[in-house]
Amino acid sequence: MKKLSWLIALSLYCLSSFAQHAELAIGAEAPNFKLKNASNTVNGLDQMVSLDDYRNVKGYIVIFTCNHCPYSIAYEDRITNIHNTYALRGYPVVAINPNDPERVPEDSYDNMIVRAKQKRFPFAYLHDNTQAIAKAYGATKTPHVFVVQKKKDKNLVRYVGAIDNSHKEEPSETFLCDAIDSLLDNRFPTKTNAKAFGCTIKWKR
After folding, report:
1. pTM, two decimal places
2. Which of 24, 90, 136, 202 fits as disulfide partner to 103, beta carbons 3.0 to 4.6 Å?
3. How many Å apart are CA 57 and CA 155, to the nearest integer?
4. For residues 61 and 92, is the Cβ–Cβ distance under 8 A?
5. Could you say which DSSP state residue 61 is in?
6. 11 assigned to some structural domain
């Protein structure tokens, strides 16, 4: 009886944890946020940045990423190129580091500032110090992408998942760019989900 009760409790805990971190569905409204910026963009270094700070945009490319993950590092230049290509067309990159710096000191806010300066990030690089935003979006990996389209007073999710299909070489499938190109052409993306791959987010213990 005790064993059965323990199994039931464990199952309920696992279901609760899964629900808490459930990935935002396509068409769901993306939560806004206000997070400290580690790169000298938008409102400037150490300023709080929210989606509302972006004027005359059609949407956002929200990417959960970090300093230490080999996958995130491999994608840094591609993310910069994506921002440079699409920010002028209304879809800027908004990068968010969700990792717990106590578990991964390399992902501290101070180290984010150093990394942003070294790589000359042209996009905001925000610190999700409470991890509330990563949980609200249902991010699980770094990198993990959410393409958000502005529709009047709402921000609606149109694509979720991977940037493309290879972090090591020239990709044969460019999921993220294809999705944005579709939206810019006033069409819904043909592919709305591609499983994110990378390092697991380092949650607070």
Report:
1. 0.89
2. 202
3. 11
4. yes
5. E
6. no
